[in-house]
Structure formats: C-alpha cells, structure tokens
Amino acid sequence: MNERASKNETSMLPTIKVGRGVLTAPRPASHMRRAEDSAPCRKLSGLAVGLTVLLLSNVSSAAEANVALHWNQLPSLPDPIGVAAPFAGVSGGALLVAGGANFPDKAPWEGGRKVWHDMVLVLEQPNGPWKVAGRLPRPLAYGVTVTYGDEIICAGGSDEKQHFAQVFALRWQDGKLAQRTLPSLPRPVANACGAMLDTRFYLAGGISAADATSALAGFYRLDLKTPQPVWTELPSWPGTARMLALAAARDGAFFVVGGVSLTRGPTGQPVRQYLRDAYRYDPARGWKRIADLPHPIAASASPAPNLSDTTFLVISGDDGVNAALTSPAAHPGFTNEVLAYDAARDKWIRIGTTPAPRVTVPAVHWRERWVIPSGEQRPGVRSPEVWSLHAP
User: Fold this and answer.
1) Which terminus of the chain has fewer Cβ atoms in its 10 Å neighbourhood, N or C?
2) Of 150, 91, 96, 41, whose CA–CA distance to 392 is shortest?
C-alpha cells in the first residue's frame, strides 16, 4: 500500500487444500513441492470440478465452499526484502517484474525511508533463476500493469517526489528488454486499478498525489488495437471515488471492487474508509452496482485472477480491521481469505485461503498459473516470495 512513514504503511508452505468449512492439516516439510514438480493438468481438472460444484450451490457468506486451491512457490526475487506495487506481466514467454518500493534500511515506524526502484527482473522458466533484464525509465511503483499481446503495459505510478501520467510498454525479446512509449494518461495517477477487456485497457480511480485527502473517480479506456490509440474518459461508476480498488475483466465486463476512499482529517491528514461496494461496467450498457463484498477489502492482487468465463477471485487484501493499531509493528498481517465472485449469479463465495497473504501486488497469468510476485505481507514489511495458484 502507498504507505506513509508512520502507521499507514501497509516459509515456504505446502500446498493448501480447503474442504467444506475445514482447512486440512498442512503436509510435513519433506512433502513440500516447488512449482516445476507439480502436475498442472491433474490439478486443473480437480479445481474445475470443485468450482462447478461450488457455483451450482447456494453457499452462505459464512461457509467455505468445497473446492481445492493449489498453491506453489516459484523462485523468490533476488531482492532479500521484496517490493510492494511493482509492475509485472508476461512477454516472450517469460515473467517480468519491474520497479516497486520498499524500506531497505529499517522499518517506517523506526524512521526508515522508502526507496523506489527501477530494476526489471525476468524469470524465463518456472524453475530457473531470476535475471536482471534492464531498467525502467525511472524508479517507479504503484502504477497499473496489464499484459496485452506480447507486451507489458505500465500506466501511471509514483516515485519519491511525484505521481506520473506516463504510459509505456515493456517487451522481452531475444534476451533483451525493449521499451516503447504509449499515450500518457489524462492526469497523473497512482494506486489506481485496471484490467484488459478484449483489446481495451480500462483504468479506474487512484490518487493524484501522495498527500491527497480525496481519491479520484476517473475512468479511462485505451484501445490498444488501433494504430494511434488515445485515452478516452468514460462516465464514472455510481459510487464514491476510491483508490486501491480491485479491477477485474470477466463475463464481457469490467469490474471495480472495494478499495479505499479518503477524507480530510482534523489536522489535514488523509483519513481512510474501507469499502465493500462493487460495480460492473458493460461497454454497451454502462455501469451497474453488483452485490457488495462480504466485508471491506482493499489492495488485493489486481487484475483479479479468473477461474471461468464468469468467475474471478479476490485473493487476500486489507480489510481495515487492524488499520487503527497504534503500533504498526504489532500488525498481524493481512487476511488470508480467498473470495470468488460469480457474475452469472451475482454472488460472493468464500472458497478458501492463501498461504501467503499479500497486498499492493499485481496478479499475472503465466503458464497455466496465476502468479503473485512479492508484495506487502504487513504494513512496512515486504516479502521476496513469489507464489502461484494453478487455475484454468
């Protein structure tokens, strides 16, 4: 999360299987497997069957559905601390992770200074080493990133001094990193959310400056199939302005889910309100409010991983329960809950947990798995771990 230096800073585990209301005991360490040793086809089949049962049942918001989630670790980032809010995507068949921010010297509540990074890392094989691919145009984090074709589109973001409107594309080809410039956003923005729907990149919300006391309600579209794409401003969703929302693209629509709204506090500081409302944008019909989340959630892995033609996931996130802690060092970490939204039935369903709760991190579809690279495990604390979820 886009932390301030005070309290606003937001082991390899075995495969986790979740049954109906029961979390089965973890395997002993000797049975832990890395991603390259798994059998994805078998796992995908089991997950698809479980999901079918799940979606045909009317599961109460308090119950866990009968579906197995299969988590594995990929090689950790070479940065021993890890980063929050990097750009990430797939190009040339490889996974790229770029930029991000962390506290390399000491925690923010100890006076640590946040540092933004410009390094681009590449993982060409799930069991291979991370390599340095190159560098971003500048140190950058908290932007929106999507994969389109064979490029990774990076929009907006911030560094230590300001927020940016610039948009650029990264490509990994023949062992080299190439970059090209795309049209800038209509305004500087960080902590927005976005996703690809067909050939169109949608971007929503965010903030215009680090000390902002109100979030943005801007909603923009860039059609990447046109020879000279131009950002188009669209009508906003019928709800409050927000940042750190989840974006999803499924069932022919774009979704904005949860997030945080901001107001000005008594001493001029930004005050957060955690949100549970959610909205669906159909390009032909406009906006529609959908079922509220079971509870508020912000900064979960985005764009949301998809499970079927009509279903996407909300993996972890900040529910705001511990936001008022007087000592950030005492924060226990973010929720490990995994929710599924079934667009065909307008239902939220709790389907399991993640062994590695993370926020302010992208989700990337790579080689039949959804990858969560690094991210923030509690305020001020990142993790270099890279986790993957096998899904259709």
Assistant:
1) C
2) 41
- Between 40 and 16, the higher pLDDT residue: 40
Let me know if residue 15 belongs to a domain: no
* DSSP output for 100-159: -EE-SSS-GGGTPPPEE--EEEEE-STTS-EEEEEE-SS--BS-EEEEETTEEEEE--B-
How many domains are contained in the chain? 1
Tokens describing residue 56? 């045909």
pLDDT in tens, 291-348: 999 999 999 999 999 989 999 999 999 999 998 887 878 899 999 999 999 999 999 9
> Given the DSSP bridges, would you call strands 193-197 and 376-378 parallel, antiparallel or unpaired?
unpaired
What pLDDT, in 10s, does the model give residues 225-273?
Answer: 999 999 999 999 999 999 999 999 999 999 999 999 999 999 999 999 9
Bridge partners (DSSP) listed for residue 178: 171
Q: Which two tokens stand for residue 179?
A: 């970059």
**Taking every pair of C-alpha atoms in the chain, what is the biggest distance, in angstroms?**
56
Residue 29 lies in a domain: no
CA distance 67 to 1: 30
| pLDDT tens readout for residues 52-72 | 333 333 333 333 455 678 999
Q: How many CA atoms lie within 13 A of 339 on its CB side?
A: 30
- In angstroms, the Cα distances linking 205 to 128, 144, 244, 378 are 37, 11, 8, 23
Q: What is the CATH number of the domain that holds 183?
A: 2.120.10.80
Place of tokens 């410039």: 181
* Ramachandran class of 199: left when φ > 0, alpha when ψ lies in -120 to 50, beta otherwise: alpha
Is 387 in contact with 371 (CB distance < 8 Å)? yes
In a domain, 24, yes or no: no
Q: Is residue 23, in this structure, part of any structural domain at all?
A: no
Contact 131, 111 (CB under 8 A): no
The tokens describing 230, both together, are 């131009």
For residue 283, count CB atoms less than 10 angstroms from its CB and return exposed for 0-12, middle for 13-18, buried for 19 or more.
middle
The neighbour count for residue 291, using CB atoms within 10 Å, is 15
Beta strands at 337-342 and 369-373: parallel, antiparallel or unpaired: unpaired
